[in-house]
Design goal:
This protein has about 270 residues and is an all-alpha fold. The protein has helices at about 5-15, 20-40, 50-75, 80-85, 85-90, 95-130, 135-165, 170-200, 210, 215-225, 245-270.
């Protein structure tokens, strides 16, 4: 068997054995079903309201959850193998560091892909069965795009976790840096941009500002799931309302957020002393 596929298969089996897939799938399913049926409970409405409201609400919560899960899934991918003594053993086989890294990426991407498809897909199926007057084509299209973008977002942070795992020598340090990275991307980045707006009294380059959102994969993810809906979200996302980002542009940006970190992770891994 191809060595890359062998490593991917190993990671997938580890995910099944450690119940990562089961846990993540259940979390996503409960989140999706809960938001779909109880998202408007605060306004006195129980049950499915609309596709845009459901997707926007899911994206607003998933943007916090998916990066954290992905970082925790992969933060010890390299340093963990090194501490356990299996990294050196793996590299004694006819296997390059690049093949090992790509194999791990495919394995972790499979775990996230299976979990998001089953978890969020279950909500789409339940809505189509029990909700009345639902545009099934629009429902499956919206959830399909959400699942694809959610998986890509997760893989972005898996690649970032590899950078962290290749830089440190202890799993505890990797875990700490993973949490700091989550905090920076999910919270600090948007707060910093808002701070710039406040400090400049809104006079910051209005044409450039929306493109700064592309520098954060979490903002790209939210933008992907707002395109085509009348609602444009809240906070910084409203700034991008007047910029005609296409779905393909945003998906390409998210793919870039996978390729660049995995390239950096490879460079770090190559230089790592065993």
């Amino acid at each position: 068997m191809n060595p890359v596929l062998s490593i991917a298969q190993k990671e997938l089996k580890d995910g099944l054995r450690n119940r990562w897939i089961v846990a993540i799938t259940l979390i996503f399913a409960l989140l999706a079903i809960g938001i779909s049926w109880f998202g408007a409970a605060a306004s006195g409405v129980i049950g499915f309201t609309s596709i845009p409201n459901t997707i926007i609400s899911l994206a607003s919560l998933a943007v916090f959850l998916i990066p954290l899960i992905s970082l925790l899934l992969a933060y010890d991918a390299i340093v963990g193998e090194d501490e356990d003594g299996t990294l050196l053993l793996l590299l004694t086989y006819p296997l390059t560091k690049g093949q090992l890294l790509i194999g791990k990426l495919l394995g972790h991407a499979s775990i996230l892909g299976i979990s998001t498809t089953i978890g969020f897909g279950a909500a789409a199926i339940i809505i189509s069965i029990f909700a009345s007057n639902v545009d099934l084509v629009g429902l499956y299209k919206a959830f399909g795009l959400f699942i694809v973008s959610a998986t890509l977002l997760g893989v972005c942070f898996v690649a970032i976790a590899y950078i962290i795992s290749g830089l440190v020598t202890e799993k505890s340090k990797a875990a700490g840096m993973a949490l700091i990275s989550w905090f920076m991307f999910v919270l600090v980045f948007d707060l910093a941009l808002l701070g710039i707006l406040v400090a400049t009294e809104g006079k910051f380059n209005a044409e450039l500002f929306p493109y700064l959102l592309l520098l954060n994969p979490t903002d790209v993810f939210r933008l992907i799931n707002l395109v085509g809906f009348d609602a444009v979200g809240t906070g910084l996302i409203t700034i991008a309302a007047d910029v005609n980002f296409s779905i393909y542009t945003l998906l390409l940006a998210l793919v870039g957020w996978v390729l660049v970190p995995i390239g950096i992770a490879y460079g770090v891994f190559i230089k790592r002393k065993l």
